[in-house]
Specification:
single chain; 199 residues; mainly alpha; two-stranded antiparallel sheet
Amino acid sequence: MDPGAGHAAAKWSASASKEVLPPVDFAAPKLEESSCHQHPMRDEQWHGILVDFRTKLATLDRERIRYIGRAIRERIEWLDPIMTRYCRLTCQRCPDPCCHARKIFFNRTDLLYFAGNDFDAPPGQTRAIAGNPCRYLSPDGCGLLRTARPYVCVWFLCEAHIALLHGEPVGFQRQFIKIIGEIRTCRLLLEATFEKAFP
C-alpha cells in the first residue's frame, strides 16, 4: 500500500456513511456513448452546439435532466481527491503521460452534461486543430476542474494508478468501481434521453 493509502481509506471509511449521493436505480438503456462531436472544432462551433443542446434540453423533463447531471457531478467530486492523489504520486515519473495524448476530445455526452445543467462549460473543445496539444494542459497538470474535463480524463486509470487502487482496502476498491459504473450509467441515460427526443 502506498504511503497515502491509509489516510485515504480512513477518510473514505469515516465519510462513507454520511455521504448522500443521488441514487442511481435505473439501467443504462444503451451500451456505448456516441462519438459525435469528438473531433477538433473552433470555439464558435462549440458554443453553437451548446446553445442548440440547451434549447432542446429545455423542452424535456428539466428535473430529470438536472437530477442526472447532479448524480454525475457528485460522483466525479467523490473521485476527485482519489484521482488527484494518484496523479501526484505517479505522473511526474511517467515517461508518457496520458495528458499528452493528441486524440482526447469532449464528446456529445460531455456537451449534453454541460448544456443540461447550471455548470460552467469549458470555453471550447480540447483543440481546434488535429494534432495540437490539449489547450487545457499546463505545467502543473490539467487546468480544468475534474467535473469539467472530458469523461475519459475523469476515470482513466493507467497501470500505475491500478497498482495504487489494488493497494487500497477491498471495500474502498468496490466503492470506487461502483462509482465509476454509476457515472457511466447516468451518462448513457442522459444521451439516450436526448436521442429519444431528437433522433
